[in-house]
Amino acid sequence: MKSIRERTFEIEKMFLSPYACRSENTAGRDRYEAPCEMRTEFQRDRDRIIYCKAFRRLKNKTQVFFSPEGDHYITRLTHTLDVSQIARSIARSLSLNEDLAEAIALGHDLGHTPFGHSGERILDKLSPNGFKHNVQSVRVVEVLEKDGKGLNLTKEVRDGILNHPKSGTPSTLEGKCVSVADRIAYINHDLDDAIRAGILKDGDVPAEIIKTLGTSSRERINTAISSVCRASYGKNVVVMEEDVLKASDALRSFMFERVYFSESSKREEEKAERMLTAMYGYFIENSGELPQSYIDLIDEYGKEQAVCDYLSSMTDRYAMYMFNKIFVPKGWTFIDEAN
Predict the structure, then answer these.
(1) Selection from 252, 271, 250, 243 nearest residue 114 by Cα
(2) pLDDT of residue 262
(3) Which of 145, 213, 277, 300 has most Cβ atoms within 10 angstroms of its Cβ?
(4) Phi and psi at residue 77, in whole multiples of 5°?
(5) First vs last C-alpha separation in the chain
(6) Which of 298, 271, 304, 268 is nearest to 130 (CA)?
């Protein structure tokens, strides 16, 4: 009797595009593991990511707005789930491997810093090794998780995580689905958050962008996914139609000008920079106060890398807690001598 995993292989042979990455053709893991009877290797990767500590921390990491007070702002976790859903939709429409696309999407931001891309820019300035969240995400799954053992993910998933930024070149079409899905997700949902925060109004988006993409987040995302499907179906590419791509790039530029690099964002980034710079210097000078798992990294990777690993792992709230613990004086309790 064939295993469930083997039956999945047969289904993929019948229904996946010739350009898809079939589960049975994976390049494998760095360390051999016996196959699972039920799950393909990409399905196992998805499960490992969902249950790792770095994934759980995403719920308290900023997407754009630092430690937002409202309940409905996008966090790094909800962004990740958005990317996963969009990537799966694109992969399904193109008859690609949804399991691989989902695993890459769920892991693509595991190495992101507190305070969103501001935190990334700050650590990139502080560290002599530089800092990129996609590189750090791979480091999380290869080195930092499971007390230094890593998650031992497949090469295809790690490649997709590393190459998900716009400048990347994923080796699989599923990785390209995630790269496109990431841009679709953050531009549209960051726009919703900016309107919710009062930074933008509904009528601020240029009319030519609205005309092409739509007036609501739902319409814009549907327009983008449908465009990718029309432009890519039956081809060895994952691309948008030219007019939709042009409008999406225009919306992205609009968001950078009006939201990401706005005066209010710069003021908050200055505060985050003071906090992270102070903590970076403190732990460089007092590396013995790092958690033991990060102290154990120093001999092999150096003090600067270990400190960056620790700071980038922090949630927004934990970073503020640790800053207060180190630098803010505690109040004294005086004994009432009259009693």
Answers:
(1) 271
(2) 76
(3) 213
(4) -70, -50
(5) 83
(6) 304
Which residues are within 8 A (CB) of 124 and not within 5 positions of it... i.e. 6 or more apart?
130, 131, 132
pLDDT digit string (tens) for 165-196?
999 999 999 999 999 999 999 999 999 888 88
For range 139-158, the mean pLDDT: 97
Task: Find where tokens 């009528």 sit.
Answer: 203
Which amino acid does the sequence have at 52?
C
- Over residues 66-113, the pLDDT tens digits come to 555 556 578 899 999 999 999 999 999 999 999 999 999 999 999 999
Residue 339 has a pLDDT of: 47
Place of tokens 């240029």: 206
CA 255 to chain centroid, in Å, comes to 19
In the structure encoding, which two tokens stand for residue 36, read together?
């699972």
Write out 219-256 in H/E/C secondary structure.
HHHHHHHHHHHHHHCCCCCCCCCHHHHHHHHHHHHHHH
* ∠ Cα 306 280 49 (to 5°): 45
Measured between alpha carbons, how far is residue 117 from residues 120, 186, 269 in Å? 5, 12, 9
- Please say whether the beta carbons of 37 and 5 come within 8 A: yes
With b for 16 or more beta-carbon neighbours within 10 A and e for fewer, the 259-284 pattern comes to bbebeebeebbeebbebbeebbebbe
Tokens of 326: 């180190």
Upper half-sphere CA count for residue 97 (Cβ side, 13 Å): 31
Average pLDDT for 208-217: 95
> For the chain, where are the alpha helices, taking DSSP H only?
4-15, 41-50, 53-57, 76-93, 98-107, 116-126, 133-139, 155-162, 173-196, 207-213, 217-232, 242-255, 263-285, 292-295, 298-301, 303-313, 316-327
